[in-house]
Amino acid sequence: MMVSRLLLLIGLAGLTGCAGFEGSEQLREPKPNPACCRSLGDATFVTLVPGETREFKITTDLQTFGFPEGWSYFVGLALIPPSDTPRTLTLRTRPVDEFRRRETHVFIPRVAVVAPDGKVSRYVELNYQPNIQWIVPGVLPRNRGWQGSLTIAAGETRVAVYTATLLPQTLRFSEFEEVGGYWYVPSGPTGVIEITLNDG
Questions:
Q1: Confidence label for 195 from pLDDT (cuts 50, 70 and 90)
Q2: Which end of the chain is more exposed for a tag (fewer CB within 10 A), N or C?
Q3: Where is 15: in which H helix or E strand?
Q4: What is the largest CA-CA distance in the chain?
Q5: CB-based burial of residue 122 (10 Å sphere; 0-12 exposed, 13-18 middle, 19+ buried)?
Q6: Cα gap 105→189, rounded to integer Å
Q7: DSSP strand E in 74-190: where?
Q8: Are 183 and 170 in contact (CB under 8 A)?
Q9: Radius of gyration of the chain (CA)
Q10: What's the CA gap between 186 and 191, in Å, rounded?
Q11: Which residues pair with 109 in a beta bridge?
């Protein structure tokens, strides 16, 4: 009787462990969040000023919206003060876990420019390039992820940064020790991004 109970407990622990591991590895599609947002006019926008760089963790706790590609977690940015000249927004993204290369993913941001009425005035898909930093200048480079920039027109003051979760995308990560010299990182609905606003 005691042996049977012990075997039953071991079996249950094994099943629980497997279920927990599988859930942590799967990337779940974002679901509509009733708290937000029927319109991007209802969204929360955090401020970003010229010359400022902010890091954002895109998690399942963030607001969601039904973009053309599907529901996505997103961060809303209010670019202040308003400008009557164009500005540049630079986005940097990197693998969620650089040490578990075969199991990681990356948040590949897109940008929706939001008009004063809460509707999207335009969508921008950025062209991401490797963000190379030199450990030893000219000798030993390190890929710190990818970055892309877009021009914010005069009068544009709000943007939503999201990912096209329904599109199978990858970014190439160059590495000298890899076979072929690179590996591909798939996109996912969560991740980390840095965003910088610059004048001109």
A1: very high
A2: N
A3: helix 2-25
A4: 80
A5: exposed
A6: 9
A7: 75-79, 87-94, 109-114, 120-124, 129-136, 140-152, 158-163, 170-174, 182-186
A8: no
A9: 21
A10: 12
A11: 163
pLDDT of residue 20: 31
Residue from 53, 52, 41, 54 nearest 160 by CA: 41
What is the rounded distance in angstroms from the CA atom of residue 96 to the CA atom of residue 60?
A: 14
Which three-class secondary structure state does DSSP give residue 110? Answer: strand
| pTM, 2 dp | 0.77
Ordered alpha helix ranges (H), 82-196:
none
Q: Residue 168: helix, strand or coil by DSSP?
A: coil
Output the CA torsion sign for 81, 163, 185, 23: positive
C-alpha distances (whole Å) from 3 to each of 10, 12, 54, 128 are: 11, 14, 57, 59
- Report which residue type is found at 180: G
**Region of residue 155 (left: phi > 0; alpha: psi -120 to 50; beta: else):** left
**Closest among 107, 84, 62, 52 to 155, alpha carbons compared:** 84
Tens digits of per-residue pLDDT, 27-48? Answer: 567 776 655 667 898 899 999 9
Q: How far is the C-alpha of 149 from the C-alpha of 133, rounded, in Å?
A: 17
Q: pLDDT, tens digit, for every residue of 132-182?
A: 666 666 655 556 788 999 999 999 999 999 987 665 677 876 665 555 567
The percent of residues above 70 in pLDDT, for the chain, comes to 68
Rounded Cα gap, residues 61 and 138, in angstroms: 41
DSSP conformational letter for 41: G
